[in-house]
Amino acid sequence: MYMRKKSGLPELLSPAGDRERLEAAVRFGADAVYLGGKSFGMRTASPNFNSEELADAVAYAHKAGVRVYLTCNTVVHNEECTCLPEFLTGAKNAGIDALIITDVGVMALAKRYAPGVEIHISTQAGVTNWAAAAEFYRLGARRVILARELTLDEIAEIRARTPQDLELEAFVHGSMCVSFSGRCLLSNYLTGRDGNRGDCAQPCRWKYALMEETRPGRYFPVGEDGNGTYILNSRDLCMIRHIPELVRAGVSSLKIEGRAKSAYYTAVVTNAYRHALDSYAEKPDGPLPEWIPAETEKISHREYSTGFYLGGGPGQIYGNGGYVRGWEVIAICEGMSGGNAVLVQRNRFFRGDTAEVVEPGSAPYELILSEMADAEGNPISVANHAEMTVFLKTDRPMAKGAVLRRKIAKPESGE
User: How far apart are CA 246 and CA 115, in angstroms?
Assistant: First the structure.
């Protein structure tokens, strides 16, 4: 076992769309990561991992005590069944800890070609009741990833009426789909890109209008409360203030959505939920330090909701189809050299700027960029070349992988 989960706490499960995002998740406190291979995964927009990269990723994660779960949860068609044995055997040989599976046929093949690898039932299976969860357990599943449409009370009942060694995983942060647990045909119908096979074009985020049959070319806006026309655009999920309720409901693993999102997103959200879990462990009835939920506002996101957990639903954002973005990454720390942090530039920054430093294991802190030099040691006043190396004088050692960010003067919102 490669678990580093603290006793009594749910697992923190983070997305890893590529190696950079994997390293961010591991550095910032994930207990486990989930990722995809080059096929059978629900995120073709992510770079994902080929067989060699997968083996290297597993070795890296396991060295840090982090478990690795591989997605195999697309809707599989006849012609693909002959490719599954090789995929499953390769996954086992890479050393993964679990396969995330939707299809009972794929589940049967996994037991044959990847024996000993745990089976986790995907949210795509739409498990909403204890009978379904218990049946998947009887068929050999170690974990069920619950449908997103459940309340905390419903999850608590599933926990009470299923075997205690069946683990329950639930999404706690990230994008929400307007369709039931992501089972959507809209993208396939409008663009030919099948959302159930990892290729969603996200047409639920588009702006829509009506056209009357006898008046071709004349469009009528679709509005609600006069605020706009993005009638399918769901809010993002954020449950960081509700860790105690999730624990009491019996959730075994807290899952962060976002394999197609940036390494910065992975680092910041993982860091926030890691601290939220650790704060709960230290003081279960104590208040959550306010800087922790504030971190979830410092990534690109849609307006937040608590999804279906507390009753009701996530609701839609009618005014626009895009993200709120108030901060930008300016550099990543590669380590220390003498009294300098060695930075790789991501966005232009100037001497005298005030940055926030986000590093594993601590709250963010402010740092004035007072003395900078280029790779040759020449003093500079601006870092304006992409990926350039910058030596930043600092009295406080900075951890490898730390992120430097800056507040955007005029936050971006909309398309």
Answer: 32
